[in-house]
Amino acid sequence: MTIVERCKQLVKDIYDQFDASHDWQHIERVMQNAKAILKTEPSANAEIVELSVLLHDVSDSKYTDSKENEQRILQLLDLSKQKQHIIREIIASVSYNGGNQLETKSIEAQIVRDADRLDAIGAVGIARTFAYGGAKGRKLYDDQEEARYNMSVEDYRKKQTASVTHFYEKLLLLKDLMTTTKGKQMAKERHEFMVCFLKQLKNERDGEL
């Protein structure tokens, strides 16, 4: 059994406890995206990328206040201190944090972040946004709510904005934040689909049928 296969065994039960926006299927899709980008980035360490994808949400602050899962699994995998440090750095750089994202220090970090963000946009991104909003009891939309473009990490995490507001505060911004060439290519069509969706949603809400 490879270390990546072992990691899959250790993380799957954790993701199965999360709502549909961050469940095991999310990890499978991010892995698929990462492997597509890896084909165009031959210098990247595939094992580091795959382990980082598998671990990137096990201690997500939306679901836990602790890094215990991440730390415990890294230790169980018997990775070197150096590899553990690299993977932790990659995981820390994935989060958008209301625009307060950390710098990606390696091609591996760029691949993982692009792969995760690709799953936040397009048809799947739309579905995930409303799945998370439903799980948290958020409104579908709120015409009185203004999107925030300059906010702290705390503000971003604490305010329970409507799901449609989230598109303007984050999702529609991700296309221009992609870092790999393949990631940028993949993001373009998904971004355009979201724009079309929001136009159609507005038409239906406004009675323009």
UniProtKB/TrEMBL annotation:
Kindly name one Pfam family recorded for this protein: HD
Q: Which residues form the HD domain?
A: 23-121
Database matches in PROSITE patterns: HD
Q: Which organism is it from?
A: Viridibacillus soli
Q: What is this protein called?
A: HD domain-containing protein
Q: Which domain of life is it from?
A: Bacteria
